[in-house]
Write a structure and sequence with these properties.
Elements lengths: L14 H12 L3 H14 L4 E7 L5 E6 L6 H6 L12 H4 L11 H6 L3 E7 L6 E7 L2 E2 L3 E3 L4 E7 L6 H5 L4 H18 L4 E6 L2 E6 L5 H9 L1 H6 L1 E2 L3 E3 L2 E7 L12 E5 L2 E2 L3 H10 L11 E7 L4 E2 L10 E2 L2 H21 L84 H4 L5 E6 L3 E5 L3 E5 L1 H15 L7 E11 L5 H14 L2 E4 L4 E8 L7 H13 L12 H15 L6 H12 L14 E5 H8 L3
Parallel strand pairs: 1-8, 13-15
Antiparallel strand pairs: 1-2, 2-7, 3-4, 3-7, 4-5, 4-6, 8-9, 10-12, 11-12, 12-15, 13-14, 16-17, 18-19, 19-20, 20-24, 21-23, 22-23
């Protein structure tokens, strides 16, 4: 005879309780309901999706679409757990191509709300209405309705008051619902989205094939006009497209960064890091606007690793990362050269707003026949200039390590040619006005004023010279007396690890004793005055993990960035007319002249339109 202690303690949950438990994963807040219902509408082939919320979605969430609709049997079956039309076997799970697929959303939502589904297929004479209150399903009834589906969700969490108390205020919940709708509207510009909140229309987007127009409708035309179209880039099973924004308009939050995978909004640290690397270095806490669209073979990505499907797992993450990095780098490099494809935003239907200020300057980047002021110039001829004017973006462009620059420009020392006249050295479209605060040089360009930081300019020039020679023999200068560096024993492993990279840069080093490093030669690009301090600083930075030589896509790049920064900081600033014009000419001959390797601007424009607005605001 079984005693009370022997009685089983494990039992099966009833279906309603199991659905409410599942609702904890699916329905985090009203925005989660909006997400699931809108995804079902998109999967149903809807051309127009209307969303209405009241009291932040707690009182009512109504999603209407003109999709394929459902018959009576499907309308009842869709409210059963794990009922789906999108998976039939394990192979389908390995290659998910639709937004929703697990069949948990509708029954989980229905278990914690009052739900009513009205739906009709185009071929049916009448539609069907199915109601469900707290998981209790009522019998379906006939209904007259247009083809498509309308789902009403009211009194959310009415039977789980603890969950309801954890919700924020109506305005906060409504903001989350609006953001979720915004994500879907950006992911599917060919679908019309209408969002209403408490009887007020928040936005009503027209269906369009132009993503830039959709961005202008949702986030403003000022942002849309500054975006650079990402050059479509293909990798193994990956296609990348979208838009980037200049770093000058970057925000301190990721509010304007959007990443979509096969139409699904995602968050992925690897992709975000690839974007930052593609920019060639972004200051910490700065996030440029980004609209990145990834089309990946469904068999190469697992979208079922997160309950809300916000995170994914790639089978070949390296291919995705490298493709994204290449796309961002190539786009920024083309923009710096003025060769990107321009796609203006079509005029808005509303009254034309005040014109967006022209924040770019347009010098013609013609090569100047003179060696760079900080080092001998490349022997290889520079590429011919673009026939059109090259815009000056206010953002950092990508590092040349990832841009498609020729590797054949050898840095061979040669005697400097006779100093040209100022007229020969003056970059087209620029007039030197004078120094500012003994730190900057001021020029007048075709569209306004331009401020140049000589220190930042020297850093960019030297960095590009170092990057060109990372796979070639570097001209070196032999030291008459070797320099001895006394290292901390904790820095010795790092120094030994750095030897190949240092030799690639043009240093000739050898160990002398247990903890002494002997410097026999330096790159011809550098001055020997502070060589010992410079090398010691680089080794210590690597020992502290600041260079991350083993983790970078190009191990030489972080070293070159640091070396250029330290070298430029040690040089004196000459703000004379001839020196400033010479430095500007050398800077404009760089592949990416508009920022330092770390992302700080070398040139800052101040357009004439901005001056007019300051003096004549109305």
């Amino acid at each position: 005879m079984d005693t009370e202690q022997d009685a089983p303690r494990i039992h099966r949950m009833d279906d309603v309780l199991a659905s409410q438990v599942a609702a904890g994963e699916v329905v985090e807040r009203p925005a989660s309901v909006v997400k699931e219902l809108v995804e079902n509408s998109i999967d149903a082939g809807a051309g127009c999706v209307r969303i209405e919320i009241r009291r932040g979605g707690i009182s009512l969430i109504k999603v209407s679409d003109d999709g394929c609709g459902m018959g009576r049997k499907d309308a009842v079956l869709c409210l059963e757990r794990h009922a789906t039309s999108k998976l039939r076997c394990y192979d389908d799970l390995c290659a998910v191509s639709q937004l929703g697929f697990r069949g948990e959303a509708l029954p989980s939502i229905a278990s914690v709300s009052h739900m009513r589904i009205t739906t009709r297929r185009a071929q049916d004479v009448e539609g069907t209405t199915v109601s469900c209150e707290g998981g209790n399903l009522a019998s379906p009834v006939s209904a007259g309705c247009a083809p498509g589906t309308v789902i009403n969700v009211s009194n959310l969490f009415f039977n789980t008051p603890v969950r309801r108390r954890f919700l924020k205020g109506d305005d906060t919940e409504a903001a989350h619902a609006e953001h979720q709708t915004l994500l879907h509207a950006l992911a599917f510009p060919a679908v019309r989205f209408v969002l209403q909140r408490d009887g007020r229309t928040v936005f009503d987007t027209s269906a369009t094939g132009d993503l830039r127009s959709r961005i202008a409708d949702l986030l403003g035309r000022d942002l849309a006009t500054t975006l650079m179209r990402i050059r479509p880039t293909n990798g193994p099973g990956v296609h990348v497209s979208g838009f980037l924004a200049p770093l000058a308009g970057a925000k301190r939050t990721r509010r304007l960064q959007f990443i979509f995978l096969n139409g699904r909004p995602i968050e992925d640290k690897l992709i975000s890091r690839a974007v930052r690397d593609g920019y060639g270095g972004i200051p910490a806490g700065v996030h440029p606007a980004l609209f990145l669209y990834l089309d990946v073979d469904p068999g190469l990505v697992d979208v079922n690793v997160h309950p809300a499907k916000r995170e994914v797992r790639f089978r070949r993450a390296g291919d995705v990362v490298s493709t994204v990095l290449d796309a961002v780098s190539a786009t920024l490099a083309a923009h710096a050269r003025g060769t990107e494809e321009e796609a203006p935003v079509p005029p808005a239907a509303a009254p034309t707003p005040e014109p967006v200020p022209n924040l770019v300057l347009r010098p013609v980047l013609q090569p100047v026949q003179r060696s760079l002021p900080l080092a001998p110039a490349p022997q290889a001829p520079e590429p011919p200039p673009e026939p059109a004017a090259s815009p000056l973006p206010r953002d950092p462009a990508p590092s040349p390590a990832r841009s498609k620059t020729p590797e054949s420009a050898a840095l061979t020392p040669r005697p400097a040619p006779p100093a040209p006249t100022v007229e020969e050295e003056t970059p087209p479209g620029f007039t030197f006005l004078g120094p500012v605060a003994d730190e900057f040089a001021l020029f007048e360009g075709r569209d306004g004023l331009v401020f140049m930081s000589p220190r930042a300019a020297r850093e960019r020039i030297l960095f590009e010279q170092l990057m060109r020679c990372r796979k070639q023999s570097v001209p070196v200068q032999q030291l008459l007396l070797p320099v001895l560096l006394e290292l901390d024993p904790r820095e010795l492993p790092t120094a030994r690890e750095m030897l190949p990279t240092l030799e690639q840069a043009g240093f000739r080093l050898s160990f002398f004793g247990r903890s002494t490093l002997r410097v026999e030669s330096l790159p011809a690009l550098l001055s020997s005055a502070d060589s010992a301090e410079l090398l010691t600083d680089l080794i210590r930075a690597a020992a502290r993990g600041e260079l991350r030589l083993n983790r970078s896509v190009h191990p030489f790049e972080p070293f070159a960035r640091r070396l250029a920064q330290r070298t430029a900081a040690r040089e004196t600033t000459d703000l004379s007319r001839s020196a400033s014009l010479s430095l500007l000419s050398a800077l404009l001959r760089c592949e990416i002249p508009y920022c330092t390797p770390s992302g700080n601007p070398t040139l800052v424009p101040f357009p004439t339109n901005e001056l007019r607005r300051k003096f004549h605001p109305r």
